[in-house]
Design a protein that fits this description.
alpha+beta, 5-stranded antiparallel sheet, 5 strands, 21% strand, elongated
């Protein structure tokens, strides 16, 4: 007569394999996440409350870079005009599409666009440039961020220690 079901040894081996896989997965998970109870230094990255503000900054940076790129494409990259961003687009011209006032300040007065420039690079016509914002009021004060268009793609950098935005794709810290 044949027995139905699994033997004790096969069940134990299955549990052992599942336990090993779980241990590896949890080790990788916990090494990749930040423990807010551990304190940590500012060089380890932004605090959770700062992360929310920097996410808001990144959204504004993305809108401003998109508006700047669109303006540069529609004006045919007629740069070199005094008082205008590269590509022939002033901050006032991209402000409405970027979601800020003509002076670059958001409606709630917490963020201000400080740099908005873009250029065509290389024979392929790729864009390079930078959009930077600084927190000037409320919960955004002391935070800043920059979005860089590079030949290899977009690079976002943040600064949590002061109002001066990162000036290059390698300065500041990752957002």
């Amino acid at each position: 007569m044949a027995r139905a079901g699994f033997g004790l040894l096969s069940v134990l081996l299955s549990l052992l394999v599942i336990g090993l896989l779980s241990a590896v997965a949890l080790t990788h998970y916990f090494s990749a996440t930040h423990d807010p109870r551990g304190g940590g230094s500012p060089t380890e990255g932004p605090r959770p409350d700062q992360s929310a503000r920097l996410a808001e900054a990144q959204a504004l940076l993305g809108r401003a870079m998109t508006a700047l790129t669109l303006c540069a494409q529609t004006t045919g990259m007629a740069g070199g005009l005094p008082g205008r961003a590269s590509g022939g687009c002033s901050l006032a011209e991209i402000a409405a599409n970027a979601g800020v006032g003509p002076n670059g300040v958001t409606a709630d007065g917490r963020w201000q666009i400080t740099v908005a420039e873009i250029n065509v690079s290389g024979s392929a016509g790729g864009f390079t440039g930078q959009v930077s914002i600084a927190g000037i009021g409320g919960t955004a004060a002391g935070l800043s961020a920059s979005l860089f268009a590079t030949p290899s793609g977009m690079v976002s950098r943040c600064e949590v220690g002061g109002a001066r935005p990162p000036s290059s794709p390698s300065s500041g810290q990752g957002c």
